Amino acid sequence: MFILNQQNSIANQYLAELRQLKVQDDRMRFRKNLERLGEIMAYEISRKLAYAPLEVESPLATITTEVPAEQPVLLTILRAGVPFYNGFSNFFDKADTGFIGAYRAPHTSAKDLTVAMDYASVPPIEGRPLIIIDPMLATGKSMLMALELLLQQGKPSHIYVASVIAAPEGVTYLQRNLQANFSIWTCALDDRLDERAYIVPGLGDAGDLAYGPKI
Fold it and tell me: What is the mean pLDDT of residues 153-170?
């Protein structure tokens, strides 16, 4: 498991602003900070990918450099995942992308939380590195549902589960229930879930903060 804020970097500033009430009123800045963290996390994950030599001809000479052997598949969970995904897309600009619509049923607690999934558009994933992108890894149920759906379509070479904030309960749930080759990447591992299955201290509802409240 990789936790970004275990080492100090500029990412801590963006994460702090995402949490701050006085900054959260600025939706554009909230989305931008999610995007920035997506870029930073994309860079960190890129260090784990397979690389191959590429011969490059400059105006003065030819040089060989290492570039990704293949592009990962990016997959995000709508709607909160879009700004975070944009950061990954900025860096992996040649990657194929998939989208899944998953959301928690309203008025449920952490114990009886149910997840609805009503949309999926996924490129081929067999044998390819897959980065699944969702800013909040809370209970882990929507992430597991999305991955189980994906695994019916093919077996990735490795799954990178990328979040901004994770709860210990969600991490444990995936570790116990996901039968695949995967690793978890998060900017912060917070304390716990509350009775509504929100991460504490967390930042609130990432989708509402990015795009406004939903009916």
Answer: 97
* Cross-strand pairs, 34: none
* Cα 141–chain centre separation: 14
Is residue 210 packed enough to be buried (19+ CB in 10 Å), middle (13-18) or exposed (0-12)? buried
The DSSP bridge pattern shows strands 96-104 and 51-57 to be unpaired
User: What CA–CA distance (Å, rounded) separates 126 from 85?
Assistant: 21
Cβ pair 61, 79 in contact under 8 A: no
d(CA 133, CA 35): 12
Task: Give per-residue pLDDT as tens, 50-100.
Answer: 999 999 999 999 999 999 999 999 999 988 899 999 999 999 999 999 999
Confidence of residue 188 (pLDDT cuts 50, 70, 90): very high
Percent above pLDDT 70 for the chain: 93
CATH of domain 2-211: 3.40.50.2020
- The length of the chain, given as a count of residues: 215
- pLDDT given at position 103: 66
Q: Measuring CA to CA, how many Å separate 165 from each of 64, 92, 147, 197?
A: 38, 22, 19, 13
- What 3-state class would DSSP assign to 167? coil
Q: Which residue in the block uniquely carries the two structure tokens 């952490």?
A: 110
